[in-house]
Structures are given as structure tokens and as C-alpha cells.
Amino acid sequence: xxxxxxxxxxxxxxxxxxxxxxADAISFDLEDAVPEPGKAAAREQVAAFLHSDAARAxxxxxxxxxxxxxxxxxxxxxxxxxxxxxxxxxxxxxxSPESVRRAVALIAAAEHAACAETAPPxxxxxxxxxxxxxxxxxxxxxxxxxxxxxxxxDLFEPHGIARDDASNVHAAMFALRIAAAExxxxxxxxxxxxxxxxxxxxxxxAMARRLGFLGKTCIHPRQVALANAAFQPDEAEIAHARxxxxxxxxxxxxxxxxxxxxGRMIDRPFLKRAEAVVAAAARAAMP
Length: 287
Prior knowledge:
alpha/beta
């Protein structure tokens, strides 16, 4: 999931176009992109599309960003998608483990009522100071959590934190990535509002990849190629990772836990990273 493209729930004319594009994942947005009077209509439009044959046949990662659990829209959102073709449910503005458990209980009840065959995992967006402080506990609150996503606009803007200072961005990314690592879930990078600044987007994406993030959010199709390029391992990295995996298999047969590859000592942490690179290359090669 190198790239995740937001599509407003109010723009059904864009749904099929997004599905045919190059983003690895499509996130249908019912929250920030939808004004209060349009919540019900957007929900109905997204639900109809996700129940369509096109959505069910798609190999993209399909996500819905629902409204926050403490809003009057949450219950209707999860009821609408309880049996839809959905790979992840994105919960915004998560601030506590208790809110995660409450959301999971409501989602599970809606799935039970709909006789749903699957239970999509959760992507939790961390976008407040309290949420970032408790991110590891939030991620570990329920086994349905697959990943944490960083929301820098809500985290920075109300508090006067400069987004154009790379050290500020790095600090928030690092805190989220370590929290995700502690909980054993993936970390996903934030959206970048300045669509006319591809260099800024690419710089943030490169920083996120160096910190071990899975991919970066896109708010416009022109950002998709930037995200795909930033999070796609290059040929040299893939070749090196494959050598590590191959030597590790041979070393395991000899009962060796540490070994040299290209003159560098390799043990379990390095092997895990190499395996992740090989898996990412395999996913990118899939049609």
C-alpha cells in the first residue's frame, strides 16, 4: 500500500476513475471532505459503489474513512458498510484505547446484524497531542487494529507547529513509528495539502520511508506517482534483500544465527527487513 488516494464521498463520478488509477489503495472519505448536510448522501453513494461488482472484483485496497466514533454519524456509517467489499476501516481522531474498544464493539454488532462474512481490520488515525502521546496503547487496544496513520494537519495547525520545518515532521513521524512498532502494527504517513508542491511531498515521503512507514496518503491523483516511487524498493535494494534471504535459508540449515552478506553482518533484525523488502517487491509486481 505505497499510495492511498482519498476520494470524497460527495464525488461519485470519481469513484470508478479512482479504481482504474495507479493508487494501491482508495480511501472513500465520509469525514473531513463531506460537509454536515451531505453526510447521509455521501454514505449512500459510497455504500452503493462498494456493493457493486466493480468494487468486489477490484484488487485494490478499499478503505472507508468513517466519521469519528463520538459523532452522531458513526453508527449509520458502520451499518452501511457492515457487509461491503472493504479491506480497511479508517477511524479518525482516535485519542484513547477506550474509544477503539467502543468502536470495535459497535462495528462487531453491526457486522453480526448484517451476517457479514468478513471483519475488516482498522486503520487508526492519530492526529491530536493526546492521541500521539498514547499511540502505542491505542494501537494495542484491540487485535483488529492493523495500522496507525499520522494526521499532521490536525496535529500541527491548531497549535502553531510549522509543517515546513522538517525537524517537526520527523519528530511526529518517529513518535508514531515507534508506537506502531511497539504494538506490532504498520505505520502510514499523512496527507500533504500543497498539491502544487511535488518536491515537498516527495521529501516527506522519502523521510517516511526511511523511518519504516508503509506508504503515504494522497489527496490528488498527481501525488500517486510520487508515493509509488518513494515507497518502491529499487533494483539494488531488492537484489541485496534477496541475497540476504537466500543466505539466511542456507545458514538456518547449518544452525547459524548470524552471517555475512556483502561484507556486512546479518542477524534476525536485518533479515526481517530484507524479508519485508522482498515482499514489497512481490506486491508491486502483481497485476
